[in-house]
């Protein structure tokens, strides 16, 4: 009987796994079918070379891609253009001057400058819109463009020794890290300069402002504008800004691993110090709330239990003190314990602090924009995140936002889909009122709630009808602009003349 039971369990497990597999295949096929229905222009997809085994050999370099988009099948025809494209991608300091100098002798140099920069931007938006599962390779290739190519053996050795390298650095810097993190926490909360709560704060409720949105949503841009508002700019005390990424960048272990220049380690380095940076941020948050300070918490807010428990703590912190809890802890029996904050009983202490006013500012954008920003940020700053993790953070926040609004006193929602314009306010809530939205604009949030977090390209991101193809979208109006071909023709003619002139001058110099 026991054996029969085991066989039965095995059969049920196999059937369940098969059903799950069929569901996954059906879902993936649904998204893939859209690629053919949308009508993809193959020219716009970066070229990929694979070995007979199917293993990735290489992806077309960005500079070669730019040359091909403008109309040069052989990138060696235009080496200076390729160099400028690479410099623009990495946002090198002298990039603008180099482009001006490149076009200086043309009759309409200023107009050509604008058109070439626009073309570079279009190429960035299309080049990084595909092959998301190969994003680490693409970023590594872009960063190592001027370095000698690594052999396959060196790649294998680096991957095999990564754990030992990380552990060695951690062991050597363990004590240094403790003191360094403590100093960063004290600097963030400004302990020592303001022992007492400022007078203005004692006369009003302190404010806890949550800045939420997926990775690459554009929260930093929105926060800059918010800090210019009369309340924050006129506050007697600077708010405590809590951001895990800031602690990550100041982490001595992160910096030690980061500065070694192994581009393939970027993702794992960030993930390796993730817990310590979030713990440091949580420590600062609970300390600042206990002191009754104005606080701005900047994060993805993609995990509902953490947000809900943090709200509950903030609602009661004027009556009780709190400390960090055990956090997220899976037990041996498979159950999950989530306890992020613990109340500290201090009945003998007289609390005079006013209750917190809790506000939420959400920032959303299409997953496509977020991925592009994330990959480009990785190239410019060497701060990387996995594409599927990034998409999950956007989807979770978008789904949770309406519920979050019910827990806070005031809420605002911004959209950062448009390029080159300020973030757009698309929803707001005051007091006990419901969230007010524009029926058309709120589509920006609704589109994110259903995106495909396993997408490999822009065309697999949404179900039909895909919002990326709608009139008014950046992809439709900027990348696929009907006028782009005529601009490319004009650029091609000027670039060809410039490159020939450069080659000619080099030949004369050699003679």
Automatic annotation (TrEMBL):
<dbReference type="InterPro" id="IPR010488">
    <property type="entry name" value="Zeta_toxin_domain"/>
</dbReference>
<protein>
    <submittedName>
        <fullName>P-loop nucleoside triphosphate hydrolase superfamily protein</fullName>
    </submittedName>
</protein>
<dbReference type="GO" id="GO:0016301">
    <property type="term" value="F:kinase activity"/>
</dbReference>
<dbReference type="GO" id="GO:0005524">
    <property type="term" value="F:ATP binding"/>
</dbReference>
<dbReference type="InterPro" id="IPR027417">
    <property type="entry name" value="P-loop_NTPase"/>
</dbReference>
<keyword id="KW-0547">Nucleotide-binding</keyword>
<feature type="domain" description="Zeta toxin">
    <location>
        <begin position="202"/>
        <end position="316"/>
    </location>
</feature>
<keyword id="KW-0067">ATP-binding</keyword>
<dbReference type="Pfam" id="PF06414">
    <property type="entry name" value="Zeta_toxin"/>
</dbReference>
<keyword id="KW-0378">Hydrolase</keyword>
<dbReference type="InterPro" id="IPR044802">
    <property type="entry name" value="NADKc-like"/>
</dbReference>
<dbReference type="GO" id="GO:0016787">
    <property type="term" value="F:hydrolase activity"/>
</dbReference>
């Amino acid at each position: 009987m026991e054996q029969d039971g085991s066989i039965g369990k095995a059969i049920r497990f196999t059937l369940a796994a098969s059903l799950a597999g069929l569901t996954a295949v059906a879902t993936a096929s649904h998204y893939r079918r859209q690629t053919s229905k949308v009508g993809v222009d193959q020219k716009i997809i970066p070229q990929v070379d694979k070995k007979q085994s199917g293993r990735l050999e290489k992806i077309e370099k960005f500079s070669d891609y730019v040359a091909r988009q403008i109309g040069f099948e052989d990138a060696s025809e235009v080496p200076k253009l390729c160099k400028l494209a690479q410099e623009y991608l990495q946002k090198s300091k002298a990039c603008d001057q180099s482009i001006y100098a490149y076009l200086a002798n043309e009759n309409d140099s200023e107009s050509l400058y604008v058109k070439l920069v626009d073309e570079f931007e279009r190429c960035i938006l299309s080049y990084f819109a595909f092959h998301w599962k190969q994003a680490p390779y693409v970023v590594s290739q872009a960063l190592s463009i001027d370095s000698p190519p690594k052999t396959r053996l060196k790649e294998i050795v680096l991957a095999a020794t990564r754990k030992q390298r990380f552990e060695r650095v951690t062991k050597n810097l363990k004590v240094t890290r403790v003191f360094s993190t403590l100093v960063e926490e004290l600097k963030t909360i400004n302990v020592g300069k303001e022992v007492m709560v400022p007078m203005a704060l004692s006369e009003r409720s302190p404010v806890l402002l949550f800045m939420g949105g997926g990775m690459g949503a554009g929260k930093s841009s929105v926060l800059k504008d918010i800090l210019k508002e009369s309340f924050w700019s006129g506050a007697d005390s600077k708010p405590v800004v809590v951001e895990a990424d800031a602690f990550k960048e100041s982490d001595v272990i992160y910096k030690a691993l980061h500065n070694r220049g192994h581009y393939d380690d970027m993702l794992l380095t960030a993930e390796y110090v993730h817990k310590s940076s979030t713990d440091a941020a949580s420590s600062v948050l609970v300390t600042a709330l206990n002191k009754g300070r104005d606080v701005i918490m900047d994060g993805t807010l993609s995990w509902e239990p953490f947000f809900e428990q943090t709200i509950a703590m903030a609602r009661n912190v004027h009556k009780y003190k709190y400390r960090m809890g055990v956090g997220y802890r899976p037990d041996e029996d498979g159950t999950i314990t989530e306890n992020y904050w613990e109340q500290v009983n201090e009945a003998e202490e007289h609390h005079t602090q006013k209750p917190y006013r809790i506000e939420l500012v959400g920032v959303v954008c299409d997953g496509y924009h977020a991925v592009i920003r994330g990959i480009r940020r990785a190239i410019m700053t060497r701060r990387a995140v996995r594409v599927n993790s990034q998409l999950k953070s956007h989807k979770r926040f978008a789904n949770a936002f309406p519920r979050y609004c019910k827990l806070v006193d005031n809420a605002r929602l911004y959209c950062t889909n448009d390029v080159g314009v300020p973030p757009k306010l698309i929803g707001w809530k005051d007091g006990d009122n419901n969230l007010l939205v524009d029926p058309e604009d709120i589509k920006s949030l609704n589109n994110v709630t259903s995106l495909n977090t396993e997408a490999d390209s822009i065309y697999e991101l949404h179900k039909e009808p895909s919002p990326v193809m709608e009139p008014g979208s950046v992809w439709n109006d900027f990348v696929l602009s009907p006028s782009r071909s005529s601009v490319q023709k004009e650029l091609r003619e000027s670039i060809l003349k410039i490159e020939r002139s450069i080659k000619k001058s080099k030949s004369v110099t050699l003679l």
